[in-house]
């Protein structure tokens, strides 16, 4: 956005898988992102987070 379009700051919006792309973009270019809104971040906790839990 900064290099190609010439915007000094911009906002991000992402839904579903676009939120993962937007989140990565925010992590890389967080000095130029003015605001970010992600509706759904597709991730899951590591499987080790459930280690030691017994089944109910």
From TrEMBL:
It comes from the Eukaryota. This is Uncharacterized protein. It comes from Mycena alexandri.
């Amino acid at each position: 956005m900064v290099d190609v379009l010439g915007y000094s700051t911009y906002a991000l919006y992402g839904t579903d898988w676009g939120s993962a792309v937007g989140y990565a973009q925010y992590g890389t270019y967080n000095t130029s992102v003015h605001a970010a809104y992600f509706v759904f971040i597709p991730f899951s906790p590591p499987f080790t987070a459930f280690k030691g839990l017994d089944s109910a």
